[in-house]
Amino acid sequence: MIIPKKNRLSSVEYKQLQEIAAEFNCKVGKIEGEVRTLYPIIGDETSELFINRLEGLPFIDHVSRMMAPYKILALDQKHGKQTISAGQLKIGRDFTVIAGHCTIDPQHPEYFYKTAAAVKQAGADMLRGGVWKPRTNPHSYQGHDQALDILLKAKEKFELPVVTEVMDERQIKLAVETGVDVLQIGARNALNYSLLKNIGRYTENRQTAVLLKRSMHMGSVDEFISAAEYIASHGNTNIALCPRGTMPAVDGFRNFPDESITLLLKERTWAPVIVDPCHSVGKSEYVPKAAMSAAAYGANGLLLESHFDPKKGIGDDPKQAVKQEVLAALIKDCKEISRMSCSFHQRISG
Ligand code: PEP
Ligand code: MN
Questions:
Q1: Does the pLDDT value for residue 77 go beyond 90?
Q2: How far apart are CA 225 and CA 223, in angstroms?
Q3: Which atom from ligand 1 is nearest to the alpha carbon of 189?
Q4: Which of 254, 281, 304, 335 gets the most CB atoms within 10 Å of its CB?
Q5: Which of 213, 274, 235 is nearest to 91 (CA)?
């Protein structure tokens, strides 16, 4: 819908709209009200250039789009998946919990194995472990290839699919070739469009899924879904979306918690939503309530930092990893809340 700056356009101005629309195989109609006239676009309005040309006209205020800017990720797409595959696991069907270290410590592989056993016992469906780490401070531990072996040994030993973050082409290739089931694109790279394109191309026609975090600098929900569209349009639709909090933070939390956007994501896209409450609130004592609210909002699962003994951890683990007992209780209650949330939704929507 084209919204003009004044109540009605002159016939010369209207003709200008029609000429631009014709270049994009569209037409422009007229809805004449008592005071104002609005100008609906008839046809495919998804072209960015089309909208920019219209909004560049001095007599146009803005164009309000009816169609989503993403084509593959949109909820109404007939090839919309609802569930995605991560190894043998399906994400999007039952409530899925991914848990494990923020960062694998290559000096202490046994710590990761202990956590993997604990996480499995607590009822998690997938194991996380940071091999390569995007640290804000370049002097902090940056990760190591050795940690990949530890992650893969744990995958084999505990028969759990695994997820780790990748930040460049070499890491993507190595992780895919060695059998990592889910590649995480972290908050710092969620707006790195060439990386998103590359991961889409590299994982095309493979079983590998991509867990895309929301950037802490992303504004609109559409900006988040459009980032996922980069991956999908370059070959891989096996994508889950992961809200993890944005900046500026709420005073007292690490970020501005954003699990509530699950509602909006669910209205717009078929991609499963896996919420990360740990990076959102940033402190283990706050994580359970944030996780439960994600389940209530209808998330398909959680990504949690968990450590058998958080004080022995590196990276974020000492401050925001949950212990095994907490994880077990949390998984049980979040699954229950998720069931209640789904059945409530079904009941009230008849
Ligand atoms: C992580 O998962 O450990 C991580 C670095 O996450 P984010 O990209 O959300 O900061
Ligand atoms: Mn972390």
A1: no
A2: 6
A3: 8
A4: 304
A5: 274
Q: Sketch out the chain's domains with CATH numbers.
A: 2-63 (3.30.70), 84-348 (3.20.20.70)
Please give the average per-residue pLDDT across 20-35, as a whole number.
96
**DSSP string covering 259-314, please?**
TTHHHHHHHHB-S-BEE-HHHHH-SGGGHHHHHHHHHHTT-SEEEEEB-SSGGG--
Output the six-digit token pair for 127: 């194991």
Ligand 1 pocket list (CB less than 6 A): 102, 130, 134, 186-188, 213, 244, 279, 316
> With the C-alpha atoms ordered 215, 217, 222, 226, is the resulting torsion angle positive or negative?
negative
Q: Which atom of ligand 1 is nearest to the CA of 134?
A: 5
Per-residue tokens: 253:
């939390």
Q: pTM, whole model, 2 decimals?
A: 0.94
- At residue 84, φ and ψ (nearest 5 deg) are -125, 160
> For residue 245, what pLDDT is reported?
98
Name the β-bridge partners of 184.
165, 211
How far is 57 from 61, CA to CA, in rounded Å?
A: 8
Q: How far apart are CA 300 and CA 211, in angstroms?
A: 13
Per-residue model confidence as pLDDT tens digits over 95-134: 999 999 999 999 999 999 999 999 999 999 999 999 999 9
User: Whose structure tokens read 């909090």?
Assistant: 245
Output the CA torsion 243→248→252→254 (10° steps): 40
Encoded tokens for 313: 């951890």
* CA of 245, closest atom in ligand 1: 9
pLDDT at 79: 66
Q: What is the pLDDT of residues 276-295, one digit of tens each?
A: 999 999 999 999 999 999 99
Q: Average model confidence (pLDDT) for the chain?
A: 96
What is the distance between the alpha carbons of residues 218 and 198, in angstroms, rounded to a whole number? 20
Provide φ and ψ at 100, rounded to 5°. 155, -170
